[in-house]
Amino acid sequence: MLKIALEIDMEDLVKKALQVEDKRGRDIVIRRFGLKSPDMYTLASLGEEYGLTRERVRQIEASTLHGIKERIKEEKQSLLFLELMEKYLESVSRVRRSDFLARDIAVLCKAHEDYHPVFENKLNFLAKVLGHPYIQDETQDIHTAWYLDQETHNLAMKLIGKLLKYKEHDFDKYMGEVRDEHNITESVILNYLSLSKNFGTGPYGHMGATHWLHVNPKTVKDKAYLALKQKGEPMHFMEIARLVNEMSEKEKAHATVHNELIRDPRFVLIGRGTYSLNE
């Protein structure tokens, strides 16, 4: 895979792809895919600028992309690109979040030392032009993702759905069930779950759905609960407040934290200013 990567000049391939006579079509493609800046323009914004309907902009984009595909699909660099991406996806369980993929490919191709959004956009552009691997566009809940086949993509979405509906809020139990049911490794499961914007890691390293308290505590009292749960022993409210503030963007006054401890039945005062969990 490394040998193939070093033979590919991604920048040159993109330049060849953009050798389009229709300057308007070229500009629309560049801006729709964010090939010169990370920002990607909508059909509506380009239509307003060019005095065209959204549908007309879409037609120009589609026609331009078709012409690009016909011109570069048999290029040696294009064939190497397809071979590299297929081998890469095979090595990472056949599906990968787009920004993770771009970071890995940049290192392989020695294109960038670290992730760069325009490089990611260029990879997505080439894949869409060539028609493979497949790309799922970003949605409200899912990151942009690459995949080799629909079956793998469907399984990833199924496991994400299972996590979001998992009532026990126990990630280890969830992982065990999925591992046994589908005979796949934990690294594969984590790769699938990384596609979801609703999967994350909490302040103490607990993984799971972002609506789980120990992954994404939102209120002062939930952060206090998590701090005490993690500590496993009683703490003075000043120490609890310090830990709450470590989880917060805006610092909370010690008195504010103390008031939440007093009001919430999950906490029990066991000494002067010292609280434990009522469990």
UniProtKB/TrEMBL annotation:
<keyword id="KW-0804">Transcription</keyword>
<dbReference type="InterPro" id="IPR007630">
    <property type="entry name" value="RNA_pol_sigma70_r4"/>
</dbReference>
<dbReference type="InterPro" id="IPR007759">
    <property type="entry name" value="Asxl_HARE-HTH"/>
</dbReference>
<dbReference type="InterPro" id="IPR036388">
    <property type="entry name" value="WH-like_DNA-bd_sf"/>
</dbReference>
<dbReference type="GO" id="GO:0006352">
    <property type="term" value="P:DNA-templated transcription initiation"/>
</dbReference>
<dbReference type="Pfam" id="PF04545">
    <property type="entry name" value="Sigma70_r4"/>
</dbReference>
<dbReference type="GO" id="GO:0003700">
    <property type="term" value="F:DNA-binding transcription factor activity"/>
</dbReference>
<dbReference type="InterPro" id="IPR013324">
    <property type="entry name" value="RNA_pol_sigma_r3/r4-like"/>
</dbReference>
<dbReference type="InterPro" id="IPR038087">
    <property type="entry name" value="RNAP_delta_N_dom_sf"/>
</dbReference>
<dbReference type="Pfam" id="PF05066">
    <property type="entry name" value="HARE-HTH"/>
</dbReference>
<feature type="domain" description="HTH HARE-type">
    <location>
        <begin position="218"/>
        <end position="279"/>
    </location>
</feature>
<protein>
    <recommendedName>
        <fullName>HTH HARE-type domain-containing protein</fullName>
    </recommendedName>
</protein>
<dbReference type="InterPro" id="IPR000943">
    <property type="entry name" value="RNA_pol_sigma70"/>
</dbReference>
